[in-house]
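[audit] Reproducing an earlier prediction to check determinism. Same input, same settings, fresh worker. If the C-alpha cells differ from the archived copy the diff job will pick it up downstream; this log only records the rerun itself.
[audit] input (168 residues):
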Amino acid sequence: MGFFSRLFQPRADGLQAPSDWTRLPDSNASELVLFDEEAHKLMAQFDIDAAIVTHQRWLPWLGQVLQGARDENLRPEAVADDGRSELGQWLHGSGRAALGHLPAFDMLMRRHRFFHQQAAALIRHAEAGEGLQAEQAHKACQHASRQVVLLLKELQRGLMTRRPVAAR
C-alpha cells in the first residue's frame, strides 16, 4: 500500500472521491485533526515547534560525521534507539497515549524510527570508511527527516485549527 493510500483511505460509502479537490467535505477531513479538549491537552503537553527544531538539529550533526568528524555522543547503538531522542520519548509515551489510535501516528512513528536506523547506519559506514554507503544513508536521513517534520507540521496544523473556543 502506498504512502498516500495509507493517509487517504477510500470512502466508507464506496463512492468515488469528487474530482474537484479544492474543497474536501467534512467527512474526509484529515485524521490528524483532534477535537477540542484532546487538542488543548496535547498542545499543553508538547511543544511541536520545539520538537521540530530539535529534530532538525540532527542533520547538521550527521553531516559533520559524513565529513569525518567523530563525536562520542553519536554512537550507532545509541542513535539507532528512536526512543532516546526527545521526540522519540514523546512518541513512545504521551504522544502514543493521545494519538496512537490514528493511522497517521503509526506512520510518524515508522518514519522517525527509520530516520534513527539510517542515522546509525550513516555513522557505522562513516566509521568504517565506506563513504558511498554513508552518503546514501545521509540522503535517506534527509528524506525521512523531511517526512517526520511534514507529519509533525500537519499534526500541529490539525491541533491549531481545533483549539478550544473561549467561553462566550
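[audit] rerun output stored. Observation attached for the diff report: The chain has nine helices and no strands.
[audit] end
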